[in-house]
Amino acid sequence: MAVELSLAPRFSGLRLACERAPSLSSPLFFHRACSQRRLFSTRGAPGGVVAMAGTGKNGTKDSISKLVADLNGDKMENDVDVVVAPPFIYIDQVKNSLTDRIEISAQNCWVGKGGAFTGEISAEQLIDMGCKWVILGHSERRHVIGEADEFIGKKAAYALSQNLKVIACIGEKLEEREAGKTFDVCFQQMKAFADSITSWENVVIAYEPVWAIGTRKVATPEQAQEVHVAVRDWFKKNISEEVASSTRIIYGGSVNGGNCSELAKQEDIDGFLVGGASLKGPEFATIVNSVTSKKVAA
Ligand SMILES: O=C(CO)COP(=O)(O)O
């Protein structure tokens, strides 16, 4: 399952592909040793992270079995963290069949301790099911479901308090980019996370311009790098130099096997959150390994 979690519900499947399926989204981070800064930095765990989310309405037990079988057979370089994010209802199936080399994420969770919140899934329950990660603030949660910045920040803080690692999503809509508000929007979303989060050690930032998600309109490497640098500068000014250099910032939005290498060459792109391409069999592994290849070549 590589999960492409497409974050949202779109498909159900895990892994890569779906037309961005629903949900597995993938972050892929790599730590690229290609630059000295990365080589010597302590950025995150070893390597990049690729996460996929997939799921929702498109997935079935059968399609997920196939994705998991593919993922189990894929050859992925060891220095890349790979995470798949199936829909809640398939987490147990994935956990019981997926190789331990790939970790499991949920696509969302409740904002606080479990209780009488019908239909919600708590961080404690995710831990109980073997999840190590949760994706929070995906654009579909923000703009389709209507979750507010502050609410998402509180979710992140609570998930971290329960020892879940958080893939914290930010990103501007097309009209916001066209109005020259990209940085304002991203910084406001960052501030909302910072207002609740006290330790960034287990946080990965996923920059996903809304206009690039599931549209096949990928941001250019320069557009993505520009925002990643700005977010790192924001960390320097508002949190610390150490958090700025150690936090992995991954890119999401129409990443595929053909564009991942150029994106990965950018200094501040530490991995990817992959939707549709994570459901296309070997393409997900190609995305993971293209990063590593680049690193080795460098
Ligand atoms: O956010 C994403 C998945 O949830 C990205 O999806 P795509 O890679 O299909 O654009």
UniProtKB/TrEMBL annotation:
Its lineage reads: Eukaryota, Viridiplantae, Streptophyta, Embryophyta, Tracheophyta
Annotated GO biological process: gluconeogenesis; glyceraldehyde-3-phosphate biosynthetic process; glycerol catabolic process; glycolytic process
What protein does this entry describe?
A: Triosephosphate isomerase, chloroplastic
What molecular function terms (GO) are annotated for this protein?
triose-phosphate isomerase activity
Q: Of which family is this protein a member? A: Belongs to the triosephosphate isomerase family.
Has keyword Repeat? no
Q: What pathway does the annotation place this protein in?
A: Carbohydrate biosynthesis
Which organism is the protein's source?
A: Cocos nucifera
Database matches in SUPFAM superfamilies: Triosephosphate isomerase (TIM)
Asked if Cell inner membrane is a keyword of the record, the answer is no
Q: Which NCBIfam families match?
A: tim (TIGR00419)
Sorted alphabetically, the keyword list is:
Isomerase
One term under GO cellular component: cytosol
